[in-house]
Amino acid sequence: MTHPEFNSAAIASVDPGYLATMAARFPESGYPDALARTATAGRFDLAELSEFALAGKRPAKDFDGRLIAWCAHVATTMADTDEEFVTAAALFDLAERTSGI
Q: 10 Å Cβ neighbour count for 60?
């Protein structure tokens, strides 16, 4: 389901908490990619972030672990296969490594 008010041009001015909530609520919209871009300082959309996490790469210092955890949550809600659950787990691992917990 696509959120009717989604506007990618305005996403930069959206509060990250709101963005995370909307990404979780509307996982088939553009919100998850916008969330991933916000979490990674514009480097990755959700698919690219997932590949990065699966590769076990070291997170950049400007990555936001809390928002990456939200990306993992969204990936979990969209997962239908074992591989997709492995990807969500890799995103949670990346969030933990990014946050330094």
A: 11
